[in-house]
Amino acid sequence: MKTIYIIALATIFCLESSAQIKNYDNSGSIKIIGEKTILRLTKKEIYLKKGQQSPGLLAAVGTIAPALIGLGVKTVQEKIKNEALKYTGTYKASNSAEGFYSNPGYVAPPIVQIERMVLTSGNKQDIAAKITLIPELSEDKTAFRYKLDTGSFLCRYSIAKIKPGYNFLDLTVEIKVKSLSIAASEYKLSELRSVLVTIPMVQVNGATKFEQDIFSGWIPFPPKSIFETIGAKSDTVSKVTQSDNLLTKKTSAHSAESSITSSYGVKVPLANVKSFGLYEVDVVVTETNPFKIKAEQRTAFVDSTAESATALLKAIVEALVPKPKE
């Protein structure tokens, strides 16, 4: 009997996994042929100070170190691990850009726009979700954070399973920003920080009400590149001489001589080369059905370190088949 039950569960799960891709709106499930997620990065130039950057910014850029700023956020992964796979959905995208320091006296953190597109039956392409995040500078001009653009927010279809009458989701957006710079003639890929934007009570294919502004955590500015070249370094050496009067036994005159010594084949700063600021952005969006997550107790069947189907099937077998006696 137990063997039949195991086979039945495994068959049902495999059929669900191999079925046509589904999305959901306020009327129930819809079948889609395919989907893709696009991440757009648009520069937003923000004025710092006429002719130069503020002292606070210079100090911050000079002290950024990858080991100190690597604050990876694992909240999204833990959330998926502790909740049922059926009622969560995740999509992600990456992109890169340059020009954070494109103009003197300005910085240009990117406007981040995540757009998930689906292809429904009849080869009709539609926007399933769109999230736009606008950068804002801190008062001391050393960091920026993201603010949700509520006016352009859209969630027409969800990946997480919902039912009519229970079409609300909680969304978590994880933003990871990395920079590529040159220091001591070596490339350095620095993870500036990972931050979260939490968007609760999102109504799928409906009007989501935002009663207050939604922000992310702070992200420091990327370090600037320091360019060097092989050249000559000159040092000036001064020598002071004096002459004494033999009759008065006093110093009567002074003379100064200078000589210049040069060293070749040394690294010297490369002049008139500005750092444009190269950076990369990774975004992960997690949808969660808060109504069903509390009702379903499938945590024991989920292993975030393995493929979902394999982990679930293995857990079912281990839970139902008694271990042999030693």
TrEMBL record:
It comes from the Bacteria. This is Uncharacterized protein. The lineage of its organism: Bacteria, Pseudomonadati, Bacteroidota, Sphingobacteriia, Sphingobacteriales.
